[in-house]
Design goal:
It is a single chain. By secondary structure, the chain is α/β, with parallel strands linked by helices. The chain has two domains: 1-30, no CATH class; 31-396, 3-Layer(aba) Sandwich (Alkaline Phosphatase, subunit A). The chain is built from 15 helices and 15 strands. The protein has an eight-stranded mixed beta sheet with strand order 6-5-7-1-8-9-2-10, sandwiched between helices. It is globular, with a radius of gyration of 23 Å. It starts with a helix and ends in an 11-residue tail after the last helix. Keywords: Signal. It holds the Pfam family Sulfatase. This is Sulfatase.
Length: 503
Amino acid sequence: MNHPISTCLILLCALFGVSAKPALAAEAKRPNILFIIADDQSPFDFKFYNPQSKLNTPVIDQLAAEGMVFDAAYHMGSWSGAVCTPSRHMVMSGRSVWHIPSKAKRKTNPNEADKSLVPPDLANFTMAAVFNRAGYDTMRTCKTGNSYAAANKQFTVVHEAMKRGGTAETGSAWHGERVLEYLNEREKTNDTDPFLIYFGFSHPHDTRDGTHELLAKYGATNHADKNTIPAGDPKQPELPNNWLPKHPFENSHLNVRDEVNVSGVWKNRDEQTIRNELGRDFACSENIDIQIGRVLKKLEAMGELDNTYIFYTADHGMAIGRHGLQGKQNLYEHTWRVPLVVKGPGIQPGSRAPGNVYLMDVLATMCDLTDVEAPETNEGLSFKPVLEGKQATVRDVLYGVYCGGQKPGMRSVRQGDWKLVKYDVPSAGVHETQLFNLAENPLELLPEHHTQEVIAVTGYTPKANETNLADKPEYSAKRKELETLLQKEMQRLDDPHQLWDQN
């Protein structure tokens, strides 16, 4: 169906004998999408979330300055110790955590057998399949493993490899080269179709082997001796203020590989180990920034940059010493939240919004921005109205789950500044509740952070209200309100488990 303006233009051009093709072609040019996703990256690594950070990412910082930064973007959660698996399945399908398939041959989502909850043909309605049918050229480069293989195959051009080394061939530059090769081929063949590029990295996921130059910049070494502690260096990032020597209780999965068997960390949480590991993390993240810069420079040279929506995010956050944890199997903000920056046509430079979005909302948003119909299987919400400055959030309540270890595990709910986290670990006899006011306690500090031993290491003295408020009588009504809200969200989202105090 022609747009009324287009119809009038055709009639006027016919009347005066002028061709309307160039104008119509310009009007019909659809925007491209460059979706960039890192593997294991806390939002608080970046200066636009944490001004004290030492991480140098000028390209991503520029995207943030020229686009919109989301202050409340989340990955929803996981029923697997490999948190990236459900996260990436949600990204690809636009479906919530209990409505997606597990990794092939590893049925970790207990709802998977119910075809009404997890459609068996879901791969046909995932990101690349949707955009292929809409006339887009689709390309993907990313890590192998712990991903959505059936959805990945839908991309027309696919490159997959685990690249976590410290050289151009073994590290992030490999993924950058694949995108540059693709763009060069498009240029060579004069391909003018709109494109969707899924630009994924294997870093800063461990093993965080950075390049020699970037490791030196952050005073870090690719430490590989389990029996020694890495050398200290003043150039290493400082300990985060919510560091602890250990988590104060069994959180349902402290024996998972990411907590006890990461090369360079293992079970150590001492200051030197964590600062060195943060330095390695930053070296890998800056290398990602360099590769993104190369791709953006190429898009600019091709005249495509201004017509491209660019998303930057990660599949989930990471602890690396925060709260005495190392991995991604928790629901603290450093891990449940993800970085999210979007730049593109019509987005106000330097804008910022909470958003209250999940990664599963990305597919609906991409479709909305490009006038592509979202698949019927989609459950995500388009956050285009947030990108346009028409609203600040797309939902009021946020739900989080982790039960990759002991069941039921952890659950969280956030509404406004208030956040509740509950831990149900039957074998350890753990029934814990945490209540945080994130406006007053953004680091989710606990009573353990108030001890002189911890203050002596971090150098940070918490205020009295920077603590867990769950057992304080004056907050009992708020706790009850959020517990009721959490149970409603668990039921609404088909969570198959119940916590010890639910009925």
